[in-house]
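Issue: ligand-bound run for iron/sulfur cluster - logging full I/O for the record.

Environment: standard queue, default settings, no custom constraints.

Inputs:
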Amino acid sequence: MKIELKEISQRAPGDPGDFIKVETEKCVGCGKCAIVCIVNLWRVHAGIASIIDEYKEKCLECGACYSVCEAGAINFSYPAGGTGVVYLNG
Ligand code: SF4
Ligand code: SF4
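Outputs:
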């Protein structure tokens, strides 16, 4: 089950920059990133993973995709202070 985004988070003002990048040459197409991302931001086509263009607006910054990628194809860093996700109702 995937979570309804608008109920749990919003993005703080300011551009966080690209905080997730995929090194496609390392990706083996296992799909673990897509399975673990609870907000469904990953796609795997032709054996290569990609994250959706609007991921900055929706990512929960949990780092799960980075953690499960055994191929080391995902680079993840937390956005600069003040530009990250804000959790609601928590
Ligand atoms: S977990 Fe890593 S290797 Fe597997 S599909 Fe995602 S990016 Fe590619
Ligand atoms: S950090 Fe978490 S929410 Fe963001 S893309 Fe990765 S698994 Fe999904």
